Amino acid sequence: MPRKSRNLETKVLKELTGPGFKSAARISYSGLASKIGANKESVRAAVKRAERSQSIQKWRILLNPRIIGQELGAVQLDARLGDDSAKARAISQIEMIEGVVIVFNYHGTGVRVIFYYESEESARRKARLIASVCGSREEDTALMKVVFPSSGRLRKTDWMVLKAISKNPRESSAEVASELALSTRTVNRLIKKLTESRAIFLSTIKDVRNSLGLSVDYLIRCREESKGEVNKLVRSQTLNFALPNQKDYYSASLAFNNISEAEEFKGRLEKVIGVQEVRMDILKEHIFVDSWLDEVIQKNAA
């Protein structure tokens, strides 16, 4: 691939996949082109290349947990089970836990699980269950909260549109309108409402094996007064995702070309005054769990 095309694809992927969950799930090719300073057809071709190569494996919609009266949490730990096959079996069990939507499987023993929860106690209960499945102690897990903005309740028609685009967020409005017997104008209005009210977010599932470079997650245990300097360092890199406002922790996912760059950055973090420990995990597999979220959407759209 020519260098110019590769650079454009990198810009497109960065805009669509990070940092964090993107609210612009339905941004048009022309809108995306305007944001990154390219022409529409070049952007369209870059997205299609990423899909064909499976750098982008699939697109999924995540619900703002506030619209269903819940919160979104994350737990990171080690699966101390002896080998990769036992770890794979543990991940299969984790996928069946109510509320689990994403599993990050790292090289080695590391695992991070993203899940919806109803209360602080239910979050701790799910964290304990995940730790038990992984053969890990509860005190060795890091439990984090993913903060979302407030969002109002949805009407049935909103849920119907959400269901129609949940497995393919970039499906055309005309196709959605035909499926739901609505006008294209109504579908556009409802999708705009869902996006602008931050009721839905885009999660792009990448095939890590077919992606350029490395996706590296850092879990940084540090004092509160050190987080400003940590944040400055993290923001100087290619950022995928960050959870800065965690008690005793700062979590960040960054993109690097190779392991040497990732190790060098880990060393820089460790030198920050007040940083007590830096854990570095390299992403091996990005798993989106459809089942629980599908049930929630189906129930509300019925």
Please describe what this structure looks like.
With 302 residues, the chain is α+β, with helices and mostly antiparallel strands. Among the domains are: 3-53, Orthogonal Bundle (Arc Repressor Mutant, subunit A); 156-196; 213-283, ACT domain (Alpha-Beta Plaits, 2-Layer Sandwich). Helices cover 41% and strands 27% of the residues. The protein has helices at 3-17, 29-36, 40-52, 84-94, 120-133, 156-165, 173-180, 184-196, 227-235, 259-270, 291-301, and strands at 56-63, 71-78, 100-106, 110-117, 142-146, 200-206, 214-222, 238-246, 249-256, 275-288. The strands form 2 sheets. An 8-stranded antiparallel β-sheet has the order 5-2-4-3-10-7-9-8. It has a two-stranded antiparallel ribbon with strand order 1-6. A hairpin with a 3-residue loop joins β3 (100-106) and β4 (110-117). α6 crosses α8. It is globular. The model has no long low-confidence stretch (mean pLDDT 86).
What structural class should be given to the helix and strand makeup?
A: alpha+beta
Total number of helical segments? 11
* Structural Rg: 20 Å
Strand content: 25-35%
Shape: globular
In which range does the helix fraction lie? Answer: 40-55%
Query: How many beta-strand runs?
Result: 10
In the CATH scheme, the class of the domain at 213-283 would be Alpha Beta
List key phrases describing it:
302 residues; alpha+beta; Arc Repressor Mutant, subunit A; Alpha-Beta Plaits; 11 helices
